[in-house]
């Protein structure tokens, strides 16, 4: 059936109206989508500037630390402590295991220690015991022989281990960017500052990786690895090769064991643990 004049007029009006809507919509979005994106970005950075300790770019922390059952060392025979405590609870409980005069210092390093030990699957109680013996948790500590930092690494050992890590493609925690470091290590970040935190993380991670390498070199014997950290792996291997004692009447090992026992004795009373006899 043919359209009447009236129908044609209505049809033309609707077509013109649709064209106008299309013309109006296109310039609106083309003109305003970039400013809207800019506004969104501005708001994001403004929130971070106003609330730097709480605002983050999508980083999410897991609920608890995760260690494999064979990651722990001298005394702790299971990992229920970490499974049954949240991220923050585990940190707080471990800090409280130390003498009161050390707790302030330990609190500043506990999160980096646990995060990095989890990353490399190494016993954090062992690392804390070595660190207690080496530097008493003083980041600026420097020995007469030139060993530096929390883990008291010699410059040559530090550089060689760092080179080995890069050769293996291990991405350092300290290189993950300022936003991540602010979120993950908030207390240390704001108390130390960005650059000192990076320095601490590198010294700590290289030391942990070096300790793990020693542990593997000595067939997961924590006693030999501890002595090797102090006396050097070549000396320790030489002693073992020639059937000479390693760790007998060794003051350094005695101190590490004493510190380890002090940290873990409370946990050992409340956990299903296996004590490994002294060599």
Layout of helices and strands:
Elements: H1 5-50, H2 80-83, H3 87-95, H4 100-120, H5 124-135, H6 155-167, H7 178-184, H8 186-192, H9 194-217, H10 222-231, H11 233-241, H12 251-270
Helix pairs in contact: 3-4, 4-9, 5-12, 6-9, 7-8, 8-9, 9-10, 10-11
Labels describing this entry:
single chain, 279 residues, mainly alpha, Lysozyme, 2 domains, 12 helices, globular, disordered C terminus
Radius of gyration: 29 Å
Mean pLDDT, nearest integer? Answer: 79
Low-confidence stretches: 1-5, 16-22, 47-57, 272-279
Q: Supply the CATH class of the largest domain.
A: Mainly Alpha
Helix content: 55-70%
N-to-C order of helices and strands: HHHHHHHHHHHH
For the secondary structure, the number of strands is: 0
CATH topology annotation of the largest domain? Lysozyme
Shape: globular
Structural notes for this entry:
The protein is 65% helix and 0% strand. By secondary structure, the protein is mainly alpha-helical. It has helices at residues 5-50, 80-83, 87-95, 100-120, 124-135, 155-167, 178-184, 186-192, 194-217, 222-231, 233-241, 251-270. The protein folds into two domains: 1-50; 80-270, Lysozyme.
């Amino acid at each position: 059936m043919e359209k009447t004049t009236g129908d044609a007029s209505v049809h033309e009006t609707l077509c013109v109206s649709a064209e106008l809507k299309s013309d109006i919509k296109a310039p609106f979005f083309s003109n305003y989508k970039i400013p809207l994106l800019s506004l969104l970005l501005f708001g994001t950075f403004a929130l971070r500037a106003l609330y730097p300790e709480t605002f983050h770019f999508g980083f999410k922390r897991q609920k608890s630390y995760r260690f494999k059952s064979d990651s722990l060392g001298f005394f702790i025979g299971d990992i229920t402590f970490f499974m049954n405590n949240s991220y923050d609870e585990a940190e707080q409980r471990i800090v409280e295991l130390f003498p009161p005069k050390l707790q302030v210092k330990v609190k500043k390093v506990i999160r980096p220690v646990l995060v990095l030990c989890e990353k490399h699957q190494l016993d954090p109680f062992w690392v804390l015991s070595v660190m207690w013996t080496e530097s008493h948790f003083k980041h600026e500590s420097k020995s007469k022989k030139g060993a530096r930092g929390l883990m008291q690494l010699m410059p040559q050992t530090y550089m060689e281990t760092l080179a080995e890590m890069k050769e293996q493609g291990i991405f350092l925690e300290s290189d993950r960017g300022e936003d991540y470091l602010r979120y993950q290590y908030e207390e240390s970040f704001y108390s130390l500052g960005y650059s000192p935190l990076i320095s601490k993380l590198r010294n700590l991670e290289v030391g942990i990786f070096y300790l793990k390498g020693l542990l593997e070199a000595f067939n997961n014997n924590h006693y030999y690895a501890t002595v090797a950290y102090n006396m050097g792996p070549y000396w320790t291997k030489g002693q073992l090769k020639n059937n000479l004692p390693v760790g007998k009447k060794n003051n350094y090992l005695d101190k590490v064991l004493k510190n380890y026992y002090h940290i873990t004795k409370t946990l050992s009373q409340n956990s299903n643990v296996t004590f490994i006899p002294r060599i």
